[in-house]
Amino acid sequence: MTPGDQHPDAPAAQPLRSDAERNRERIVAAARTVFARDGLNASMASVAREAGVGIATMFRRFPSKAELVDAVFIDRMTAYADAVTAALDDPDPWHGFVGYVETACAMQAADYGFADVLTTTFPAAKALEHCRNEAYEGMVELIGRAKATGRLREDFDPSDLVLVHMANAGVVNATGGAAPDAWRRVVALLIQSFETPTRGPLPASPEHEALYQAMLRPGPPGVAAPESGD
Amino acid sequence: MTPGDQHPDAPAAQPLRSDAERNRERIVAAARTVFARDGLNASMASVAREAGVGIATMFRRFPSKAELVDAVFIDRMTAYADAVTAALDDPDPWHGFVGYVETACAMQAADYGFADVLTTTFPAAKALEHCRNEAYEGMVELIGRAKATGRLREDFDPSDLVLVHMANAGVVNATGGAAPDAWRRVVALLIQSFETPTRGPLPASPEHEALYQAMLRPGPPGVAAPESGD
DNA sequence: TAGCAACCGGATTGCCCTATCCAGTTTTGG
DNA sequence: CCAAAACTGGATAGGGCAATCCGGTTGCTA
Fold first, then answer.
1. For strand D, which residues in window 47-66 of chain A come within 7 Å by CB?
2. Can you point out the beta strands (E) in B123-215?
3. Whether residue B90 is found in the same domain as residue B39
4. B199 with A205: Cβ contact below 8 A
């Protein structure tokens, strides 16, 4: 790979041989399907099966699951970031905020894998994390504006959004296909709590560092980052 | 014990040989520890290891995980039911309701296994389900009274409690030991939404049947019931 | 079109889990 | 104290997953 520059999403670098590139795309497409259906717990092997490629091909192209996750969810994360942008464009910040939360949660409900992605952090997935951070910054801005209108409670913290996603993931994972809209009710309840007038104080938000640690959890989604990487 | 009657929790029936009974208790104790730490996903094998008994002994005593879950969590579930009773004794139903929700969620946070139990149903675990149903009935009563005071929103449905537990499980599972109190904030937000005056309508509750199906999910906790049994 | 590097994917290794079998051990009761 | 019944736990079969190895195949380029 040329030591120069390389876009996050441009394959660039060493152009793969045509058949390799074709397989790469088959894998990503298969992973999109499998992750959406089974969550990030899906095994690499099952993705390979779905893609119709050998296991080795899988690992050759994506030595760690984090890299596969990066490739698969970058577009979802982009859509997520776009939702923030759209919310910022709303003349009514509170309305934008509410719409954003609903949209983001709907994305979780529509894709089990993405639900995991939103509550987990993958230091190894560069493009993904970059996109997430961008979205996060927009969110902070959005929250600030919504507070300024006086409709979003003052003690709302950006980290609350993460908590909302965790709670939503819990509902979505538990209800699954059996009650596919149950999450809407919970999210609506949460949103109503976010609106002023505040009914009472809240327990403190978790420390940012603690929450980050929580999002690194190797547990459920089981996507251990490689040793450390660059 | 006379072969006639048998309490749900009395070993009764065919009194086990003393060493067998000892092992049974070791297994239950080990399972309590392991499930609390790892959730219901913990393998039977890991419980056997922790208990220091052979795998065969494990399966002889508890042919299915549901039976083990039944034995292990019956006391937690009893405590859960007691919390409802305590709440019903509160002269202020709304206060009782709030305290109950907080207590129940705290129990989830303190025991990953129980967190799973509260969002999953195990038809094979008789005593457990019996206890759960009892608690549920008390809850319906409690909710009715709380509504009567005018402080609990009219459109609150008993099934919302299940949703609360699912959401809470999501937060607890995601934050784990890293941010052990994060769930409190989410639960506080939900409770504030439950209090009147209502801020707006909510999406409909999931169908009871659908929610039951959701709680049967073979997925996460991975405790498939035996074929059918008695 | 020929040769070579890149690439493919099945086979394999190593680990963990569920579940059953059976030879050896322990408890119990006469 | 002895034998039968109850009980034990290692061994084992059968399945899944992560990850690596290697003989065969394919695309690329001269």
1. 55-56, 59, 63-65
2. none
3. no
4. no
**A129-176: pLDDT as tens digits:** 999 999 999 999 999 999 999 999 999 999 999 999 999 999 999 998
Residue B13 has pLDDT above 80, yes or no: no
Q: Is 70 exceeded by the pLDDT of residue B10?
A: no
DSSP B152: B
* Closest nucleotide relative to residue B18's CA, C1' based: C27
Inspect the interface and report whether the beta carbons of A175 and B214 lie closer than 8 Å.
yes
Domain limits at B162?
64-216
Which residues from A are below 8 Å from B169, CB to CB?
170, 174
Which DSSP category does A27 fall into?
A: H
Residues B132 and B145 in one domain: yes
Q: How many Cα atoms within 13 Å fall on the side-chain side of residue A227?
A: 2
By C-alpha distance, the chain A residue nearest B198 is A192
Higher pLDDT, A228 or B35: B35
Q: Is residue B223 part of a domain?
A: no
Nucleic strand C contacts from chain A, 169-188, CB < 7 Å:
none
Q: Are residues B191 and B101 in the same domain?
A: yes
Place of tokens 């009764």: B12
Chain D bases closer than 7 angstroms to a protein Cβ? 6-12, 16-22, 26-28
Residues whose CB is less than 8 angstroms from the CB of residue A76 and which lie 6 or more positions away in sequence, other chains included: A107, A111, A114, A117
pLDDT of A219 = 57
- Please tell me whether residue A151 adopts helix, strand or coil conformation: coil
